[in-house]
Amino acid sequence: MPRRSHTVPAHAPRSAVVTGGGRGIGEAIGTELVRRGYRVLVTDVDAAAAAATATRIGAAAGVGYDVTDEHAAHDVAARARELAPLGAWVNNAGVGFDGALSELSSEHVRALVEVNLMGVVWGCRAAVAAFREQTAAGTPGGDIGITASLSALGPVPGLSLYAATKAAVLSLAAAQACELRAERIGVHAICPDGVNTELLRSMADDGQAKALVRSGVLVTPAQVARALADMFGTRRVYRTLPGWRGALMRSTALAPGPMLRLEPVMRAIGRRRARTLH
């Protein structure tokens, strides 16, 4: 018998924060959480996009939020708790500058680390602080979601620093899941293969990264959102999407030398697929 989807009962409302919610995966996550009964606070560095998305998907509100600002994370948590006790915080905001590490600009290096890693750190800390305050007031538990990536599980030439930040937040999710389990705070990371979003489209058409990503399986933002939300209320720490690609990436990490000899073949497959889409 399939497991029943996690939902929020009307008699015990909970709020949810989604970072980077103005478009793409973030918008899909917000839509899914609204469907499941959360009072969603859509946040984005682009305040206008956050507000427009909130209206479009029926969320409670949309506000501007820069995830690199440690103190702003606590302000966002307080805003969400005005809607209802915090039930979920999804660290989705991210940037995806492609290119070899030696070729990235210093600005892009800092942005990858500050947004993809430190943004998750500040979000997790703010969420945990809010959950603990609520527990003291008699409303225990909650979930933290993290949008990671299949690249967290193995080497991806052309996305080396991006993949490193995703590996870091996946490790962070696993450790926090253990640290917070006794407090009924779940921590979950979703690791999708390539997702057909603006982030992928913005990569260099002739670059190594875009070709490798296209050699895999392109999933939709809605699929990512459902897979992440399905982990809420469970002890599952992470899942890959699709599952078989996760097994393949883990084998690449175990034997990077032999497996990466296939990289030119995979890149050629990705470029061939890209041509068929045009």
TrEMBL record:
> InterPro entries, alphabetically?
NAD(P)-bd_dom_sf, Sc_DH/Rdtase_CS, SDR_fam
Write down the SUPFAM superfamilies for this protein, in alphabetical order: NAD(P)-binding Rossmann-fold domains
Identify the Pfam families for this entry.
adh_short
Give the source's domain of life in one word.
Bacteria
Listed A to Z, the keywords are:
Oxidoreductase
Instruction: Provide the family line.
Output: Belongs to the short-chain dehydrogenases/reductases (SDR) family.
The protein's name: SDR family oxidoreductase
Q: Which organism is it from?
A: Pseudonocardia acidicola
